[in-house]
Amino acid sequence: MEAVITQLDSLTRAKYFSGVALVSIFYDHLLTLHSEISTIWANPNRDYFPKLTYVMNRYYTEAIVIYVAYVLSGTASLNDSECRRFIWVFALTATVFIGTTQFFILFRVYHSWDKRKHLVIILLAGFTAFITASTTLAIITVADAQDHVQYNPALRTCIIFELPSILPYMLGSLLGFHLFLILLALYNAFERPHRTHADIIDSLHSDGARLFIVLLRLLTVIMSVVGSPADCFGVLNIVWALDSIITSRIHMRVEGLKFASFGKTSRSFLAI
C-alpha cells in the first residue's frame, strides 16, 4: 500500500513538473518575443539556416512540452502502444534536437568570432562522437523501457514502472558533451591574446550559460540514479524546457551582436 501511495505521489509531481515546464517556456517566450522578432525574423540576413535552427529549438520544443503536459494531464485517452510511442518521441527528440541546435549555435559562435579552423574541427569531432554515442544509448534506453511502460486507465496517464539501467549513461553522455564545450571555451579563452588576466575572466564569464546547462545535466544524471521513474521524467521535462530557454537566448544574443540589433552589448549570453 505504501508503495502505491509513493507512486501516486510521484505521478502527481510529474504532472505538476510538466505544468512548470510548460509555463516556464511560454512565459520566457513572451518575455523575449520582441527580441526574437528583431534578431531572428526581422534580421537582414538572408540565410534561412539560423531561423530554422531557432524554430527547431524554440517552437519544436514547445510543441513537445505541450504534448508531454497533455499525456500527463489525466485527460488523454491513450493506450499502451501510444504510451510506448510517447517515450520514443520524447527521448529521441530530446537527445537529437537539443544536441543539434546547441551544436549549430556554438559552431556559429566560434566560426563568426574566432575564425580559427582548428577550434571548429575540434568542435565538429566532439559533436560527432557525442551525437553518435548519445543517440545510440537513447535508442537502447527506450527499447529497454518499452516493457516497463503501461497506460493506467484509472489515472488516465502513462506509467513507467522501472528506469532502464543504461539511462544514467545516456544522460552522462549529454553531460560529457557540455563539459567538453566548457573545456573548449577555457582553451579558447586562454589561447586568445589578452592584455590582462581580467580579460580572461571576462571571457570565461560569457560562458556562464553553458556552465548552468552543465549543472542542469548533472541534476538529470543524479535523478536517474536516485529518483523514481516519475520524478526523473518530470525533472527531464523541466530541464529540456530550461535548456531550450537558455539556448534560445544564446541564439538571439549571437544574432543580435552580429547585426548590432541589441544596441548596448552585454557580457553575458543570458542578458537579453
From TrEMBL:
Protein name: DUF6533 domain-containing protein
Keyword Transmembrane helix: yes
Pfam families given in the database record: DUF6533
Record keywords, A-Z: Membrane, Transmembrane, Transmembrane helix
Segments crossing the lipid bilayer: 59-79, 85-107, 119-143, 166-187, 208-227
Biological source species: Rhodocollybia butyracea
Ranges where the DUF6533 domain occurs: 16-60
